[in-house]
Amino acid sequence: RPTVYLVPTPIGNLTELTPRALDILNQVDLVAAEDTRNTRKLLTHYGIHKSLLACHEHNQKVAIPQVLEAIESGKSIAVVSDAGYPLVSDPGQHLVETLIQKEIPVVSISGPNAALDALVASGLPCYHYMFYGFLDNKHNKRVQELETLKAFPYTILFYEAPHRIQTTLTDMLTVLGDRKMVLARELTKVHEEYLRGTISEILDVCEELKGEMVIVMDGYQEEDSFDLDKAVDRVIDLSQT
Ligand code: SAM
Hints:
Blueprint: E1 4-6, H1 19-27, E2 30-33, H2 36-45, E3 51-54, H3 60-72, E4 77-80, H4 93-101, E5 106-108, H5 114-122, E6 129-134, H6 139-149, E7 155-160, H7 165-176, E8 180-185, E9 193-198, H8 199-205, E10 213-217, H9 228-240
Parallel strand pairs: 1-4, 1-5, 2-3, 2-4, 6-7
Antiparallel strand pairs: 7-10, 8-9, 8-10
Helix pairs in contact: 6-7, 7-8
Bound molecules: S-adenosylmethionine.
């Protein structure tokens, strides 16, 4: 049965395309790509030669019917973005909604994702977290979004572009307060780096920073909250004096 596969692609290091992703890219009849030139380069690197179809936010009225037509004629399709998972801060949402509505099988293939890579190596709590992605690029809207996240008690993941990192961290400092954070930069690449500190400490050094980056932000911590472990330690201390 013709199937649509959502295939994550490397976020930097080209060896991070899983064997299963490679198999799928080799097997499908058509690859629907965010940017056909970028995907062509990736596929050529792996010696894969496939028909490509441009499929992004600005051409979905044309591209989605083309995908449906291909499925109807019995073709299987891989959907890819420029890096990481399609749909995650990338095109594909409307396509997947349409496919599900039409009861066409959609299969997710595992692979690289910048937010998860950043989260697990950040040192901030990972058990519960929120992926937020990009904040709005208009100041007022961004501040409003941060206001809604202010009391969220778990780690929050943001994507940001280097030319906006300073303004975004400045707004975060104002709205969220000077919390712990980690800036994870150039993941899986030669200049991969984790900067750990408070928002104001990272702000002091971020002007110079280039490349792709994920902000891993500590959740809201109630300062006066009752900490059972600390209370027990205190009782033990007192009982020993
Ligand atoms: N779909 C991708 C995913 O699953 O991670 C995200 C695509 S989004 C358009 C691009 C953003 O992801 C960048 O602006 C940056 O915040 C983050 N990103 C992508 N690659 C990265 C890398 N190698 N290191 C750090 N952040 C990265």
